[in-house]
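FAD/FMN-containing dehydrogenase, Meira miltonrushii. Tokens?
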Amino acid sequence: MTRNFISQGLIFLAITLLVTQQVAVAYPLESLDSVVGRSDFSIDQTSSSPFFSRSKRSLSSSVKSCLSKTGAKLTYPSNSTYDNLAKAENTNYGILHPDVIVSPSSTQQVAATVKCVAADNGNTKFSPRGGGHGYAAYSLAGNVVMDFSNMTNIVVNSSTKQVVTGAGATLGPLAKAMGQQGFALPHGTCPQVGSAHGLGGGWGYASRKWGWMMDHIVALELVDANGNIRTLTQQSTGSDADLWWALRGAGSNNFGVVTHFTYAMEQAPPLTTNYNHVYGSNADCAKVLLVLQDLGSKTDANSGLPSEFGAELLMYGENSGDDGACSLSGQFLGSKTSYQRTMKKINSALSAQGVTATKVSAQEFNNWVDALTNIMGNLDQPKVYEPYYAQSIMDDGTPGYTASSAKAITDAMQAAVGVEGSGNSISFDLNGPLSATNANPAYGAMSFNHRNSLFFSQIYSYAFPGFNDPSARSDALQKISAITQATRNAKPNGDWHAYQNYIDPELKNFGTAYYGNNLNRLKSIKSTSDPKTIFDFPQGLAHA
Ligand SMILES: Cc1cc2nc3c(=O)[nH]c(=O)nc-3n(C[C@H](O)[C@H](O)[C@H](O)COP(=O)(O)OP(=O)(O)OC[C@H]3O[C@@H](n4cnc5c(N)ncnc54)[C@H](O)[C@@H]3O)c2cc1C
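Tokens:
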């Protein structure tokens, strides 16, 4: 969840300058097996390296004419605002080149737009763009990209304890609107992340207590592949019930456009404690992982770690430029005294092994918005553009880390410190048997299938080399992959998953990694509900 902001100012600036000069950047070669030969994505032969790009075919005059009657705002490449709208948040992808960007202000305009695209029999591809924070810029993959900056409505209903959000709403403003009325949801810590967060999971420090953000969805308004507007709930039947199951897990541009979300809110806690502990050496960090594994696996909150304790162990290696070699940080949904009672269990187990934190901080808040702002920063801050790459792994509940496998992880992490100017880390976000992330969802079965993990890890690389430097990119990728591999080696036959919200364009078996045993049913619903594959991107279900 957390990014490792090693001081990379100059490198970041240099890479940003390089990537913004790129003309056509698209999808890396690893996707070749599943995508080559299709008319919608092709290899860009003009690039110095083989990237995938959208076919160069421009929109047909009939699609253009149809779009002009939808009432939505249209931005073509010749418009002055186009570049800003077509710019990827991950700057390694530069400016992508959709044929048109459509900005609707109502569900009816979305439906009219999808009808125009559908009339082109699958030759025109469509991508909704929420917060634009998908890791591989897939929300810019289509010929027609839908920008939701005019549909950012957030309506909090304190009587029903539900909030309705438009497809353009982002986490910061949503958290603020709910928090000001004493409500909350579990979600990630980046204020500009958008609505796709809730379609692929949505993990934050409150998730051990309240589950994934998607577990709180009580209704979805969907524009389907025929441009029909459907409302999906737990009471839906027939094909609506299939979509209700499928969208919660695989809803990102596979089955239609979700135009509005209704979430059941939680009561914001009266007291919250944000904390951070830094440990100085890799050897100490390996021990912290083992202690978290031991206490986090307990099924009894008295002897283990109660669900109020949201935690992330972030390893970034020694001499990385950050404090120490790792940090254990998070949010406790309760008073500082209760937090200290829980932390004492961790501290006692560590001090018995001679490990103490080199820096400790803990701050109690009596206002949920203040507690979130302390972690997320300004909730209204504008989008930050940066170059990065990440992999993810979720264990099967019993990763079985030992002293030697934990050391292998910290060794691999240390080998990646500063590689090719990047800033790297591996996070261990705690779930476990007491975590609501692993409970049965309240609003019916769903395709999201990560319900067992003890830890949920992201191997994250900040200032990751761009596609225009294949040798540096390959070197950095190899080091990042080695951290992932070292982690998986702790249990070679374990049922490891990957997190669809940390979408990884280099992941070859992405279908089973993201969806496990649900893949076949998802593919079947995809081919029935969108037979011409108008909702498409390189890791869409049509390619899995
Ligand atoms: C800085 C940063 C921090 C993050 N922190 C966390 C975290 O703490 N916890 C966590 O769980 N995740 C986190 N994420 C991952 C995040 O949840 C996913 O990247 C998520 O997909 C982003 O949603 P978006 O709407 O911003 O993305 P977009 O790029 O807009 O969309 C992602 C995909 O969903 C599709 N899509 C978008 N809107 C819709 C819609 N309305 N209907 C159907 N399909 C749609 C797009 O076409 C695209 O394929 C983080 C990401 C970033 C970049």
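Residues 88 and 406 are 36 Å apart (CA to CA).
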